[in-house]
Each structure stands twice: as structure tokens, then as C-alpha cells.
Amino acid sequence: MLHLKDLSFRYKIPLRATLLVLATALIITGAILAREYDQLRRDLFQNAESMGRVLAKTLVTPILHDDVWRAYEIINTPFHSGAAQPLSAFGAELVLVLDPERRIYVSTRPADYPMLDSLPQVDPDYGPLDALIHSNVKEAPQTVELPGSAYFHLIAPIAHDGVLLGTLLMEYPKSVFMPRFLSIVYRAGFVTLLVLAVLLPVSWYWGRRMADPLVQLADCMSMVGTRLPELEECRLYESKDEVGRAGTQLKRMISELHEKQALERGMLANERLAAIGRITAGIAHEINNPLGGMLNAISTLRRHGQPDGIAGRTVSLLERGLMQIKETVAALLVEARVEGHALTSQDLEDIHTLIMANVHRKHLRLMWDNRMSDSVPLPSTQVRQVLLNLLLNAVNAAADGGVVQVMLYIEDDALYLDVENDGAHIGPERMAHLFEPFADPSEQGHGLGLWVTYQLVQQMHGRIEVESQPGRTRFNITLPYGAAT
């Protein structure tokens, strides 16, 4: 079962924002309606007290003259006279005039409230109201609300020269202002719905905008748990707030993990190549001993024997095969030799001259940039062999009519050899075994050019790096001064 806490932030934040907007709208609307309800009550009480005060003064003369009919006309006329503001407009359903003994003197409904009857005689529910009128000593009108009663009651003393002549009682149902209150409720509800119709989409939009950085951060972190993503895959939000700083730190961590991964791959490749070098050197030495003996035997046979016919052809075939084996073994036994001849710019220009025949054969364009002017303390033979192997490899890889670029320069006490071609892309699987013996059968000869190059660079304490992408493959060799021995 999916719980709210398990929802994605792209839904959780907008939902919470929506609930907050709804709750705010309901609270504000409820507060406004409560205030309007109280205001309607106050208006009712103020109007009732004002009307009671006017009627009480008007009734003084009829009561003094004991003119019941005139008193009846005074309290009844506002209900039926069509006055500008009749009493019924304020919602009064009943008006009573009581004498000083709290008996009914006159009422707007004589049939229901006979003269000279007390209020409890008419209806026992009036008992608390009768007691309240008896204990009331205020001269100003007041509105009272008895517990459990469905009416508001206005009590207005009728007095003349400090003498109590009677009491005016006006009865209002509590529902008198409900139509007006409901009208306010409808208007407030309509306005609230309009506001929600505007705020809810906006809150949902901004909620999604706020959640997107968190979602992007979580998505990128989830990828780190299964594999190491590329930085381009993580579209992280960057800013100086907390989420932005977390995204920046995550990108930095991914970048450092990529560097660590590249170093680990490089170390593993170096260890693998070193192990292969030791194995191939051992095998080559073991092959060299019987190989030398067999070649010596064939040489002795040629000097002292007279092989002819099939025997002579067989001996020649054996000699060619053994010589090919010797060349392959010699390629596996790469050993740097100490030379007194330091590398000069002309040594590198000689490689330029040697490679031009291969360049013309494939109709290539060679872009040669030799910025080396002074000699450097590096073994010229080994450096030239490295450059020649890289050039032969680049020429072979380039398509007919393609481009090969060479840049040779000195920087920070090191010689840099950069060789680039526009040939086929080297894929990740092939790149992992690029410098292993016989790993690239497409090379001319025995396919050991890159192996020999790698061994020579390692012996000169240098570094070789390869970058390959569609349409561009680049080999970069770094040879520090004085490293070769």
C-alpha cells in the first residue's frame, strides 16, 4: 500500500502546497463568515434596541391615558402601514406591552396573548423571561438570549418621570438574519472558489518547480548506486541554497569517482601489461636458446653439406620460418640501450622523411609541426622508434585521402609527441587491450607495434595516453628528461 511519505517529492510538495492553500482559504473564509455572523447579530440588536426605544417613548401617552386601542395601533401599525422601514423588516414576530405587574396590556396577536394574562399563563416557557423582566432595573433597552430558546427578546422599560409604566417586549426568531447570512456565505464561497481556481494551479506549478531539484538530485544519486553516471546525465540544479550546494558536491563526487575509476583502470592495465611483458620475455628467452641452436645447425649444414633438390628447398623453407620466429621473438624482447647520442630536432625530421612514402601511397595529408629546436637528453633511437611506430599506426588507420597530424614540442622539462588521425574509432573493448601483444591483428607485420611502443615508453619512464572518438584518434606521449637509462 502506497503511503504519502513514499510519494515522490514531485507530487508530495505540490500536494502539501495545495492542502496549505485549501486550509488557508477555509480558515480565512470561516473567520470572515464568523465575523459577518457576529456583525449581523449586533446589527439586529442595535436595530431592535433603537426601535424599542422609539416605541417605548411613543407608548407613554396612550398608557398614561389608559388608551389600549391607541397603544394597539402604535405597536401594530409598523407591521402593516407600508412605512419606509416597517418593524417587520427587522424580523420581529411579536410585540407585547406589559403593565407594571407584568400582565399583558396589549399585543400584536391578541388571540394568542389575551389581555391581563401573565406570560407564564400564556406559555410556561416564558417563566425565565418573566423572572428576568421582574429583576430588570435598567432603564435602557436590552436584548437577551435565553438558553434553549429559539428567540431573541428585546426588553425596553416604558417610564415617565422616573415612574415605570410598563415594559415593551419584542420577540425575534434566531433565524431572522439567516437569509442575509446565507447570501454572504454564497458570495464568500464564490470568491473563495475563484481564488482557489487561481492559487491551486500556481501552487501546484511552484510546488513542482521546488520539487524538481530534489527529484533530479535523487535520480542522479540512485544512478550512482547502480553505476557511475556521466556528468551530462545528471541535470542537477545549481545555486547557493542547500539543494544547489548538495548538487554541486554530488557532481564533484562523481567527477572524482570518474578520475578514480580511470586511475584504477590505468593501474590494472599497467599491471596486466607488465605481467604480459614478463611472461612474453620469459617465453622469448626460452625460445631463443633452441632457436639459436636450430639456426646454427642449418648454417652448418649449408657450409658442410650439399643439400639439393627437395632437401635444399626444405632447408631453405625451415630457415625462413626460423628467421620469422626469430624476428617475432626479438620484437617481444624490447630492451632500451644506453646511448651517448642525445635526441635532436633533426632526428625527428628523419622520421618525417621516412614516413612520407607511406603518406603518399594513401594520398594522405600530413600536418607536421616540430617545435623542438634544442637537443634533449633522451635516447634518440628509442624516441625515433616510438614516433615511427605511432606514425605507421596512424597512417594505417587513416582512410585514403585522410589527415594525419603530428605535433612535437617541449614543455616543463618533458618532450611531448602528439600523433592524431581521422581513421576508425577505437571502441572501449579494444581500448582496454590496445597495448597487449597481438591485440590488434589489423596492424601490418606481426602486430606488435603498439606493444613495442608501450614497452619503450615505460622503459624511458614516460606516459602514453589515448583519446578516441568518431573521426578522431589521438596518441599523446610524454617523455621526461633524463628518465631514460
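Above is the first protein from milestone M3; the second protein from the same milestone is given next.
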Amino acid sequence: MTFSRWTALKREALNYFLCFSLGHLDHIGKSYVRFFNEHRPHQGLGNLTVPAAATGLPEELESEPEVSRIRCERFLGGLLRHYYRAAA
């Protein structure tokens, strides 16, 4: 983990928790890294997530997108959140 990612982990996650063991610290670190790599958009990748950038841009829809409910997936007890449209 590079210095800038370590400071992001500290600033966005570790500053909000009291870690009582190495296992607890490991759980927080792994949860943050999973969120960072799978759900958080990256400016260097055209504001795409890492998996979306690896598979390429999705094809644009010809018609208007369907209206669907917005869902929220929470990480680290709600400290980190990922919003997405639910499948119709």
C-alpha cells in the first residue's frame, strides 16, 4: 500500500474507530480495501470502478433508462456507503 493510500485509509476509516486488537484492525483494513477497489470510482480510470474499467465501458442505452429504486450498500457500519440502482 502506498503512502497516499495509507493516508486515505487512515483519514476515511481508521480515524473513526478504536481498534482493540490486530484482528479488528485487519477487518477494518480489509473492508476498506474491498470498498476502495470494488465500489469507489477512480478519477484516473474515468470515474469508473476498477472492475468496470477492466471490462470496458458499457454500451450506451438507446432509450431512456428505466426508473428504479436507489439502494444503499453500507460498509464499516455505515461509515462508507455505495449507492446503486436496483434491478427492475
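Note on the second protein: The mean pLDDT is 78.
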